[in-house]
Write a structure and sequence with these properties.
The protein has six helices and seven strands. The protein is an alpha/beta fold.
Length: about 130
């Protein structure tokens, strides 16, 4: 199965960075990438990353999303937006596509800022879009 990395684009809340690190650790993700993360080294971040502190330390930081996705075989933008571009898949369909990738492949699950989400341009960079039914 492919390696899966979580990519956080311009995260606004350091506690969410920590929580995502914990989710990445608990789900067996290969790692965490941050694009223009701002100040994430806070007590809240470390507190919510309980058990995943080494994943925070090993997380990669990029200046832009294109650089973060350069080594990914498949990139999926998690969004509620419906701009023109790639069709929107249910997250379960995206998961099935990722599961079908090879062992040497890498998938990137891309999440945008908490209040605004990914821009249309960032969604287009991903090539795939998925929504989480809620």
């Amino acid at each position: 199965m492919a390696s899966v990395r979580f990519v956080l684009v311009r995260p606004e809340t350091s506690a969410n960075v920590g929580a995502c690190a914990r989710v990445a650790r608990n789900t067996g993700a290969a790692g965490l990438d941050r694009v223009a993360p701002g100040d994430w080294r806070t007590v809240d971040c470390w507190r919510t990353a309980w058990g995943a502190h080494e994943l925070l330390e090993e997380a990669r930081v990029f200046d832009d999303l294109g650089s973060a996705l350069a080594s990914a075989t498949l990139s999926v933008a998690l969004t509620g937006r419906r701009p023109d571009g790639p069709p929107v898949a249910d997250v379960r369909d995206a998961a099935a596509e990722i599961a079908g990738l090879g062992r040497d492949d890498t998938a990137a699950l891309v999440f945008g800022p908490e209040t605004t989400g990914l821009t249309n341009g960032e969604i287009a960079l991903c090539g795939r879009r998925a929504t989480i039914p809620s």
